[in-house]
Amino acid sequence: MAHEAVRIGIVSISDRASSGVYEDKGLPALKDWLTKALKNDITFDARLIPDEQPAISGALIELVDAGCSLVLTTGGTGPAPRDVTPEATLAVADKVMPGFGEQMRQISLRFVPTAILSRQVAVIRGKSLIINLPGQPRAIQETLEGLRAAGGEQLVDGIFAAVPYCIDLIGGPYLETNDDVCAAFRPKSARRAAS
Ligand SMILES: Nc1ncnc2c1ncn2[C@@H]1O[C@H](COP(=O)(O)OP(=O)(O)OP(=O)(O)O)[C@@H](O)[C@H]1O
Ligand SMILES: Nc1nc2c(c(=O)[nH]1)N[C@H]1C(S)=C(S)[C@@H](COP(=O)(O)O)O[C@H]1N2
């Protein structure tokens, strides 16, 4: 059976990247990782915006309304005065999904002691899962994929392992992963024959 199509929103939130002070590395990192990790045909809907709460909430609402089953943001999760991504995300939530933030901080602590400074959250809005990732571009792969030993053994699960089943549960398309990048976990009763 063919893989189902999926629309994914990617949002890079950075004052300096959005004003051209530096090149945005968030959107390319998100796109590359998702293209590597998923077998599905992906349509990306991308936004590069400054750290402004109304602009962030507005972009999230637009992306969900446009039919994105998953929206990933990067940046603006720290404690600095302009970091407001978690507030903007919570403001559009139907449900809060605390497990994602808890697991992301656990994973990130294996990479940097400052992981505890990220206030990242995940929420459900309508039929969409919205997840905040930290702004450091390498944090995208770190949190989504987790940590492997040199021999390939998975030491800490990345959060993406739980994303496909979450999207099943909210009525989205059936996401299939490339297991060498990130193996999705579903209970047996929710698995379809591999295609
Ligand atoms: N979109 C991006 N593209 C490239 N590098 C980024 C991006 N966002 C963040 N970074 C890098 O990661 C670091 C930490 O990200 P953070 O979100 O805290 O940025 P910031 O200090 O709030 O500034 P800004 O919002 O202007 O990116 C930045 O200092 C920068 O080096
Ligand atoms: N995996 C990972 N998580 C990370 C980091 C990182 O480099 N890798 N940086 C930390 C730092 S230094 C900060 S301040 C917070 C918040 O970053 P943000 O404001 O860029 O979202 O994320 C933290 N989480």
UniProtKB/TrEMBL annotation:
It holds the Pfam family MoCF_biosynth. Residues 9-154 form the MoaB/Mog domain. GO terms for biological process: Mo-molybdopterin cofactor biosynthetic process. Transmembrane segments: none annotated. Keywords: ATP-binding, Molybdenum cofactor biosynthesis, Nucleotide-binding, Nucleotidyltransferase, Transferase. Pathway: Cofactor biosynthesis; molybdopterin biosynthesis. Its EC number is 2.7.7.75. It catalyses: molybdopterin + ATP + H(+) = adenylyl-molybdopterin + diphosphate. Coiled coil: none annotated. One of its GO terms (molecular function) is ATP binding. The keyword Transport does not apply. It is an enzyme of class 2 (transferase). Belongs to the MoaB/Mog family. Catalyzes the adenylation of molybdopterin as part of the biosynthesis of the molybdenum-cofactor. This is Molybdopterin adenylyltransferase.
